[in-house]
Specification:
Layout lengths: L1 E4 L5 E5 L2 E6 L2 H14 L4 H13 L12 H16 L12 H4 L5 E4 L2 E4 L5 H14 L14 H7 L4 E3 L16 E9 L4 E11 L2 E3 L1 E2 L4 E2 L7 E6 L2
Antiparallel strand pairs: 1-2, 2-3, 4-5, 6-12, 7-8, 7-12, 8-9, 10-11
Length: about 230
């Protein structure tokens, strides 16, 4: 693990050559590392696994969450305590997005962590946006598939076609700190099969939290993309 400080006294934490955390103070960095240690239950192997997950970003994340009911409930308790103590706020909510992702659309049933619904991505997107704006976490309601135009009505913006998601990183794309929604889909002569998930630009990086599945979004299965600006 390597700590790097820039001229603005911001601190980046590098693990195995990759940055997995960035903060504007040593105290904030210490709080985050202490949180990870507690989440791992003091188990060094689990701590290293979590750090590798965060450092690896999308390429190292599993396609779905892999967590026990006990870990899920302990993580939820830790997050609620962090919110109550003011450690997670609207200003730094994106810094904890990897920790909160499992809780927008999963719960414990008969000792197993399962999805609340596999067709409620519109509801989940709204919950992720609510979290990013307020720092408060709550689960999405189950639902059948909904029209994405509902999101246009709620956020007062329109989906626009983009060639690829990476285009949003350029100077004519998203601004730093901007929150949006990606509509990804495939289509043929009779049907359109799609999915919506969130996107945030932070420190010139695009982060694609998919709250429905509790991981970063997997975009390789889709051919077409549209973008909706939220904030």
């Amino acid at each position: 693990m390597l700590f790097v400080e820039n001229a603005q006294k911001e601190i980046a934490v590098l693990y195995k050559g990759k940055k997995f955390f960035h903060a504007n103070s040593a105290g904030r960095t210490g709080e985050f590392l202490d949180y990870l240690y507690k989440k791992a239950g003091g188990n060094i192997a689990k701590l290293e696994e979590e750090m590798s997950r965060l450092a690896g970003m999308a390429e190292n994340l599993p396609p779905r969450i892999s967590i026990t009911a006990e870990e899920f409930e302990a993580g939820w308790k830790a997050l609620q305590e962090a919110i109550i103590k003011g450690k997670i706020t609207a200003e730094n909510a994106i810094d904890y997005i990897y920790e909160v992702l499992p809780y927008f659309n999963h719960h414990v049933v008969n000792g197993e962590v399962v999805m609340i619904s596999n067709s409620n991505c519109v509801n989940v997107v709204k919950k992720v946006i609510e979290y990013l704006k307020t720092g408060k976490i709550s689960s999405a309601l189950p639902s059948e598939g909904q029209e994405v135009e509902l999101l246009e009505e709620i956020y007062g913006s329109k989906f626009t076609e983009i060639t690829e998601i990476g285009d949003l990183k350029g100077t004519n794309g998203m601004q730093d700190g901007e929150i949006g929604v990606i509509y990804a889909y495939n289509t043929n002569s009779t049907t359109t099969i799609g999915h919506v998930f969130n996107i945030v630009k932070k420190n010139n990086r695009l982060i694609l939290p998919d709250g429905q599945f509790g991981v970063l979004a997997k975009t390789g299965d889709y051919k077409y993309f549209e973008y909706l600006k939220v904030k």
